[in-house]
Amino acid sequence: MKNVSQRVVSRAAIGLACAVGLFSSAASADEHVLILLDRTGSMGATSVPGKTRLDVAKERIKTFLKSAPSQPRRYAFWTFDDATYSSIINFSQNRSAAQVELEVDAVTLGGVTPLAHSACAAIDELINYLPSEFHTKRLYLATDGEENNTLSTDQCYGPPSATNYPNLDVGSWQWKVRNKACTGDANSPALCGSPGMPTLLVDIDHLFDNISFAARPSLERTRTPRGFASFASDATFFSGLSSETGGRYVSVTPSTPPAQAAPRPGDASLDGCVNVLDRSLVLSQFGQTVAPGASTDFNRDGIVNIYDYNTVLQNYGSGCTP
After folding, report:
1. Global pTM?
2. Integer Rg of the chain from CA
3. Per-residue pLDDT tens digits for 274-304
4. Which fold has domain 2-26+264-314?
């Protein structure tokens, strides 16, 4: 099918790709991506029918790994549960996307949620790796939220904020994580992107549902039951943080259509099939700068270009009924 798709590409489309798409590769530095996967017990809850939150998170991560990057990527892969995070792959190992994917597949469920501790440690890792060189830095967090086990001695420890983003309570864990992402210091608030501050993109896949923990047995040893209001508060914080840093936020609940919950690489239409429609959607936005989360921007570089077009071609026919 892939060969067929390549034959039907018009000469005009190829010319457009050559003339417009290649300019976005001017930046020669690597993109450093730290993937932080929540493997706590509550990630075993059902997400879309037949899949747990952890299943969906893994599939979403693998879809990103299969996108054609506009600049070389260097990956780190961490998981977190119980008291801390586990560094499965670090940047210095320079593992391929396929090698990262194997480690993602191998992740199993664990215990409670040191979310604030793990997120802030991941930000430190990104900032401190090759700090004297210019690189795009991206934290990709997949979680259902539920911070409940960051130690009181940690830089990002704090009570949950009683107010929602952007008016976070000073000293709350959300306030500290936000500061860490924007300034590199958990206790120093400033606008993201201010001069002299680190530039860090924060992508968040947020997997949750509308069922109160108090209404069913908990899947992990939470300190307090959490209802939908807490999930909504997390959603407000995660979406706000992603937006402020120029990253991408996606929420997935049991009502999310499966093809959208875990999209196939190259599926711009989110209908579960990579075909001529997806090729047409990419070409219709070719060369355009798009907002974070655009379905045609598979590699998340902010522009629809030859790399997104190649992602469609490389996966042409995937999920389609013969």
Report:
1. 0.86
2. 20
3. 999 999 999 999 999 999 999 999 999 999 9
4. Type 1 dockerin domain (1.10.1330)
